[in-house]
Amino acid sequence: MMKREIQGITLECRQGDIARQSDMQAIVNAANAQLRMGGGVAGAIHRAAGPGLEEECRPLAPIRPGQAVITGGHDLPNDYVIHCLGPVYQVDEPSPELLASCYQNALRLAEDNHVRSLAFPSISTGAFGYPMESAAKVAFGTVMDALPRLSSVKHIRFVLFSEGDVTLHAEVVEHLVGLR
Length: 180
Ligand code: ADP
Hints:
Layout lengths: L1 E5 L2 E7 L10 E5 L9 H10 L1 H7 L10 E5 L7 E5 L10 H18 L4 E4 L11 H15 L8 E6 L2 H17 L1
Parallel strand pairs: 2-7, 3-5, 3-6, 6-7
Antiparallel strand pairs: 1-2, 4-5
Helix pairs in contact: 3-4, 4-5
């Protein structure tokens, strides 16, 4: 686990399940274009949220790589779910820019809805094949660039599936903080 305060905002990485973040006001879904259940993160979120989430998502689909939409949390312990479609690595190009757009758009929707705390999974690093370390650099670089513009979001958590992924993310953060 890594926790740091940067420019008045808590930035954290921890091991866990994105669908079980009861202390976060919003969670981010690594969605598919149709905003359906699917596997990985989307499967875990839709299972925990119940069928009402797919129903609310239906008229919002399809979305394009880099886009994000917001819905309620339904049976999840969170008020909101922000659904991002990450790029398929080296298929949806430019993959780094499209991945950065996911984080930018998710933060913008969070701010628009006065969200105080937000948990991200590692978008695109499962079925979409984005190498974890490159994805972590894009994710944190984008989030850290956005920090000065945030006013309602005070707590950002990255929820990773394995301890190894947490260590890798913590190293990327330390490196980026060192560069600034
Ligand atoms: P994508 O289709 O965007 O690649 P995936 O859901 O397949 O999204 O995976 C994204 C990342 O989330 C992967 O690193 C995967 O190991 C991880 N992951 C899968 N399920 C969960 C979960 N329930 N909570 C947190 N992370 C998860």
